[in-house]
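Notebook B, p. 112. Complex prediction, attempt 2.
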Amino acid sequence: MTALDYLKDLDRSVFDSHNEQGYAKRAQKGLSEALVRRISADKKEPAWMLAYRLKSLEKWRELKLPTFGVDLSPIDFGNIIYYAAPDEMKGYATKWEDVPEDIKRTFERLGIPEAERKVLAGTGAQYDSVNAYHKLKEEWERVGVIFEDMDRALQKYPDLVKRYFMKLVPSHDHKFAALHGAVWSGGTFLYIPASVKVTAPLQAYFRMNARSMGQFEHTLIIVEEGAEGHYIEGCSAPKYGSTSLHAGSVEIFVKRGAKFRYSSVENWSQDTYNLNTKRALIDEDATMEWVGGNLGSGRTMLYPCSILKGRGSHANHLGVAFANTGQVQDTGARVIHLAPDTSSTVLAKSICKGGGRNVYRGLLQVNKGATGAKSQIRCDSLILDALSTSDTYPTMRVDEDDVSIGHEASTGKISEEQLFYLQSRGLSEDEALAMIVNGFIDPIVKELPLEYAVEMNRLIEMELNKPQRK
Amino acid sequence: MLLDIQNLFISAPDKEIVHGLSLEIKPGEVHAIMGPNGSGKSTLSATLMGHPKYKVTKGKVRFNGKDLLKMDPNERAGAGLFLAFQYPKEIPGVNMVSFLRASYNAVNKAQNKKFQAMPLYKFKKLLQEKMDLVGLGRAFMNRNTNEGFSGGEKKKAEVLQMALLEPRLAILDETDSGLDIDALRTICEAIRTLKKPGQGLLMITHYERMLKYLKPDRIHVMMDGKIVLSGGKELAAKLEKEGYDYVRKILSEKNPLKVLQ
């Protein structure tokens, strides 16, 4: 089952009597050539895709784990379920009662109605904002916009997919890109034809359970010349269970004069290694904007990257990271200026609490010849207690003299005086804290569409109210 | 009795600041505490509101019949105590309207369990009325709380909050400081207009100029953590006429410690 089949399969998923063993027995742990061949065969992929998968698998075997960022050595590649076929997925209907307590609480506190919660627990697949999507679909299909599940896009538009697929994040890029190339499954394909301006955000709301296929989802977005769009992805349902690796890939091609915004709110569970690779290639006079929120996952390494290839192109990165007890959020923006008159701005905000650790690891690269490049980077972190830490590692490689670059970083603690001020106005300590933190991230959250902004604020409040584990 | 302070001792982490202070305020009364810098006036007001930095080591404070010292700051606000800060805090990213609405709803909810949170559009209307009253432009509604406000605007915003929350007792901690004479007049007139019959006011100030506008029923002079001199209208009149020099004169004539004994 795919994300965009959600509506069709909803009834069956909800009302089918569940079949726990179907999934549990047949899902394989570990990675092998046989598995990669099976994935490709199941999906009836063209030969080139199988070849690419196999080549990626080879790369994965060759490549070493990254030596920077978080410690990835605990990942047991042999103990991960990389793929479960669709028919197996349908059989995997978990009872609401089987959902772990803290996940139930999360749904309750998010205000998701019980009926929906049952669906979420039971479908075991990606779940997206159905009404919003289907309404959009008709409207934009007429003007040539393609918004499909990635597996289906490969069937329907093989040439288009082939032209762009993993050209920006090739499998030899790093070990997890290679892994992704070998076992990718699901995700979103978005194509906006030249001059089409998609005014409403295209949304994919991923609600996945632990053993879903979504951990290696591929998102491929092509924004043709002069086109505009905004894609937003919410991954706010926590995952749970044995699966613990998320290595998705996002590739965005922003053509001449086009404007695109990619927003995401990622909230994985504590046992997840979130190692997503997101990259955009930006042509002449085009603009790319990233808005991201990262919460939940135990270990995150995520550095959305903008390659400013065309003259006068612009990138804007906005990010919030929240590291709570037991979490390391190693995030940052990478911007590469290849052409003259390119510009970029980065605003990164991080919050840590209960021993959480935030790292801003950014890269700014200006190549020789990128004259007149401008970049403004700002990192602010808010540390809520003495247990938590925050570090900033901004790497700058500037090979051109005619540039203008600014970098500011601030680290602050919640002030007792601010808290007291709000408390004296009737707010409890928790409410006061939440208000200050929400204010801190407001410059980023306000860039999200309303319902995501509300959810983001709620998620932050939940993190703040989470009792500290001893 | 609205506020009843008996023999209060207050310590900051490094030293004792208030050494045995007593004060009684009845509903509807206006009191003023005057005194030089470092006399403990602001410590007293922050302690009454529940600032965690200050510890009460001895003494009792009852507010509207309840033990004030047992309450958290937000509970004190809910019980009808208000402190207009000398240095209001900036809350980046939180605009006035969301902050004030959260405050308004919290305080009203504390006073009346059945209170329903006021919808935004209704609250904005109420806020506009009060803003007009204190002379704060409506555009401030959408600005971040106290961020980039001038000294006078911050003080107006404090009085605005008092107007919204309608406390039983408002403590005005040097609300007059940093204001020019026009701003002072506007703010004092707003306070006078806003004051409800049963509402108590406790103003804390260096200067006599606020007395002229707010006509306190009782004036207390504080020095070295104690009230060394108290008086009614006649003291107020003297102070208003002769200014703070009068206090200095009296204090130099009398040994302050003897006054207490």
